[in-house]
Amino acid sequence: MKRICLTIATLIISTIFSEESMNQENNVAQYDMTLSKEDSKVEDSKVSEETKNNDPISYWYSKAGTSFLIQNFGVGRRFHNIQKYNGHDLNFNFHLILMGAGGKNGVFLPSLKYEYLKYKKDNCSYFGIGAEVGSIFQWRGRFYGVYPNIELIFGKERKKVQFTQLSINLLPAIATAVGIVSISSHHPFLGHADLGVVVFGLLTTVEYTIGF
């Protein structure tokens, strides 16, 4: 009788420990599955974020800019390729000669400009070159002609505004340099430059622009 009771007790104890061991193994397996799912979600999130960050960015903007003499207002659209660190910008501009504007100075200059931009590794700072074609009108409708322009561009995309950039207009810069040499040396090939033209070129060489 004692043997029978001992055998039954042994079976009950072994069954209890066996069930407890199985429960522990199931809990561990479920915990491992949970961790695996969490890791998978985190990894998927990272991949999604990387994919999102590598997508090309494009946006519309308005802008206001000024040189020492001419003010510029315009609109444009920029395409920024994050992976290739480059960008393309097409914008329409409306230049006004506001400083000293009057009856003789009522001139405005609409223009269309394309910019190729090369970004640094932070994908914020950039430099580039712009090609611009514009027309010269007077407020009363008189048409004076068409002008080209080439720009060297240095800028940075920002958080509070779309971007800020500094442009160097090459044609006014070259005209200013040639005029200064002409005035100072009286070279027969260069002729005699008008001082007003030289000053105008000097005051329109550098332009600062903010994009909103």
Helical residue percent band: 25-40%
SSE-based structural type: alpha+beta
Strand order of the largest sheet: 1-2-3-4-5-6-7-8
Give the percentage of residues in beta strands: 35-45%
Q: Report the span from N to C terminus.
A: 95 Å
- CATH fold title of the largest domain: Porin
CATH class of the largest domain: Mainly Beta
Could you give the topology of this structure?
Elements: H1 2-54, E1 57-66, E2 71-81, E3 86-96, E4 107-119, E5 125-138, E6 143-157, E7 163-169, H2 170-185, H3 195-203, E8 206-211
Antiparallel strand pairs: 1-2, 1-8, 2-3, 3-4, 4-5, 5-6, 6-7, 7-8
Verbal overview:
The chain is 37% helix and 41% strand. With 212 residues, the chain is α+β, with helices and mostly antiparallel strands. The chain has an eight-stranded antiparallel barrel. The longest helix is centred in the first third of the chain and has 53 residues, at 2-54. The model is unreliable at 2-9, 15-22 and 39-52 (pLDDT under 50).
